[in-house]
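Revision sheet: structure tokens.
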Amino acid sequence: MTNFRNVTLVYFCAISSLLAQAPSPPSERSIVYTTHDADAIADYKTDRRVVRAMVDRLILAVTGQPDLAKAWGSLVSPNDKIGIKISAAGGELFTTHHDLSKERKKPATKKRRTVLN
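Predicted:
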């Protein structure tokens, strides 16, 4: 009787193992957006105009909207509270640059100001 229990237990474990390893359905492919401009940083100083243009290009690309006001409006509303997480580890040259996080606070147009404030 004990032998039968052992065999049954082995079969149960084998079946459970096979069921647990069933392939999961393929997930949707992710889209990764990047931007680069060699003029964004020179001598460890950022050009805010260039950084602003880079952020604007990314927002337009990610949202697929025709203008910045609509693009930002599709992401946030005037009543949203937004936190910006920056990386502070690694010293001045390896952190999220302060100019990038400041771009959120400095709208380019009145339309954008109404969306972000």
